[in-house]
Amino acid sequence: MATLKDITRRLKSIKNIQKITKSMKMVAAAKYSRAERELKPARVYGVGALALYEKVDIKPPEDKKKHLLVGVSSDRGLCGAIHTSVAKEIKHQFSNLTGAGKEVMVVGIGDKLRTILQSPSFVPPPFEAEMIDKLTLRFNRTRQAVITKELIEIISGAAAL
Known about the structure:
The chain is mainly alpha-helical. The chain has two domains: 1-58; 66-159, no CATH class. It contains five helices and two strands. Helix 1 (4-39) packs antiparallel against helix 5 and helix 3 (80-99) crosses helix 4. Pfam families: ATP-synt (PF00231).
């Protein structure tokens, strides 16, 4: 059983990690807004391409037997929720299509997505606030056990007199 000091140290380190993560999210948000501002002038080209694709009248064949799923993510971290969501959706679509007897090929673009998709058991990572709650509960239970033990020792000592 972990001591109160161990649990307190771990709880403090997780809270520090949470603070660092929060500041990293703020930096990422600032970078995102800067990239979005820089992207605005290029949107004109996207609107033009969209208009072209809308005018083209190409219909896919009705009985498609082969499917290609393409997942795109980054090569770096700090957006684990996106990697996890993309991987979950790809796995969901893959199971639906293979269940319907279709031939499916999956292409993962980005190191993080490929790593997640290649893992034998895909399990999303636990949330932080959960880790802190569990450790806080563990800390409180251990503290209560220490207090109960001390009370028992005091009562036993008084009864011996």
